[in-house]
Amino acid sequence: MATTILLKKSSVAGAAPLTTDLEQGELALNLADRKIYTKDNSNNIVKVTGSFVNASAPTAPSEGDLWYDTVNDLLKSYSGTAWSPTGYTTLGEFGVTATAGELNVLDGITASTTELNYVDGVTSNIQTQLNAKQATITGAATTIDTEDLTANRAVISNGSGKVAVSAVTSTELGYLDGVTSSIQTQLNSKLESVDINDLGDVAITSVADNELLAYDSGSGNFVNQTPTEAGFASVATSGSYNDLSNTPTIGNGTQTVSAGTGLSGGGSFTANQTGNSSVTLNVDLDELSTSVSNADGDYFAVVDTSGNQYKLTKANVNLSGFNNDPGFITGYTETDTLDSVTGRGATTTNGITVGSITTSSGNDTFGGNVTVTGNLTVNGTTTSVNSNEVSIGDSVIVLNSDETGTPSQNGGFEVERGTAANVSFVWNETDDAWDLSNETLQNVTLDGGTY
To answer: Strand pairing of 254-258 and 239-241?
Structure first.
């Protein structure tokens, strides 16, 4: 149902509310007389009517208010600044000073309202103003008084000083956009281009793999050269390396640095990888010193405190000296039973499970139903109930029950609305009233009673 507001009312004809029946601004309705009453700022009971009837105008009118002037026997309306007669009256009462003869001058005029409005804003005799205007076009524009110009052409003045069309198109003129200085000066500063359209300018001899095409300023021709002749450092593009003593530089391609027979010479290498290529380092654990004989199984590569490297099987690696930092040992599990806990003392810092009750670091979990036959006291600061349905036998719920002195805290309830703003119904102690935070209240009946 919709929200219903019922005013204080009476069905007795002629009955008006008493001053004790209403507060200032409160309304009362007489259903029999069809009249509305209120208490004004002087605590008097007055009727709320559609117009004001008096010998003098209302003291604080609003635009659109009606006043029946009993002295002049006129119904007047308020425009927002003044009272004016409303309805049939004389022209003089509207401020019209024209005589009937003056108004009759308009008799017989056939011009429409739109045509008459064309003289709006005219400040002097229209014909005088027209006579003062130039009859024909003179000067430079005489060549275009009736003619259209050729489209998309630059406009110039001809030999007679008249407006004319240039042979230059707008597209050609647009090529000058962005030019910052003399075009001829810039062209004169440019070098002559080298014509390589003629293959006779390319002096290529016997061509080998990986050679480059370079320009020889001495001969003025393009010649083929090796990377070294062209001034580039030697770059390997493929191959395997067992000796790093020459510090090879490896370019693009798939590269392999193998240690199957031992890397000799020491040194290092640089991989100049810029494309889809790779470098593979093959390390053989057989190159390490071996403290145990080879056997089947996994191996660990370890280094002792002196820097010596060893290959050990997993059975010969002692992990007792390692801590359980994140990422080193995973899958660690410690299991306790009630017997093992009580066997070493009455307390434990580890979580235990007894039936459906699980404890962990002071947090307890009840896996089944819990029944409290006595009173339940919760001393914490927050109580969370995640149930979707809560049944409470008490008919009155007391909020803010620990308030003992002068009330200072608001009280009520709040509804969680997910991604939308929450709403609340709160008793506001400051205003001493219920507060809905400007939310809409619907399907409610507010009954003012009777008088």
So the answer is: parallel
Residue pointed to by tokens 């009859």: 135
∠249-252-255 over CA atoms, to 5°?
70
Residue 260 identity (one-letter amino acid): G
Q: Collect all residues with Cβ–Cβ distance below 8 Å to 370 and sequence separation of at least 6.
A: none
d(CA 33, CA 299): 107
Cα 92 from chain centre: 63
What are the structural domain ranges in the chain? Answer: 4-94, 199-286, 288-346, 411-447
> What's the gap between Cα 436 and its chain centre?
29
Q: Provide the H-helix boundaries in 246-371.
A: 338-343
Q: Give the whole-angstrom CA distance, residue 45 versus residue 22.
A: 8
Strands 309-313 and 289-290 come out as parallel
Phi, psi of 299 (to 5 degrees): -125, 155
Query: Is 225 within 8 Å of 212 (Cβ atoms)?
Result: yes
Phi then psi for residue 126, to 5 deg, are -65, -45
* Range list of β-strands (E), 49-87: 52-54, 66-69, 74-78, 83-85
What predicted TM-score, i.e. pTM, was given to this entire model? Answer: 0.30
**pLDDT 10s digit of each residue in the chain, 451 long?**
567 788 899 998 888 899 999 888 889 998 887 788 899 888 998 888 766 778 888 777 777 788 888 898 888 888 889 988 887 666 666 677 877 777 777 777 888 888 888 888 888 888 888 888 877 788 887 777 778 888 888 888 888 888 888 888 888 888 888 888 888 888 888 756 555 545 555 666 667 777 777 777 777 677 777 777 776 655 454 455 555 555 555 555 555 555 444 444 444 455 555 555 555 555 454 554 444 444 445 666 666 666 666 666 666 666 555 555 555 555 545 565 656 656 656 566 666 666 666 666 667 777 778 888 889 888 888 888 888 888 888 899 999 888 888 998 999 989 999 999 999 999 999 989 889 888 888 787 878 788 8
CB atoms within 10 A of CB 311: 19
3-state DSSP percent of the chain in helix, strand and coil, to 5: 10, 25, 60
- Residue 60 CA to residue 280 CA, distance in Å, equals 97
Which pair of structure tokens corresponds to residue 112? 């429409």
Which residue type occupies 294?
A: N
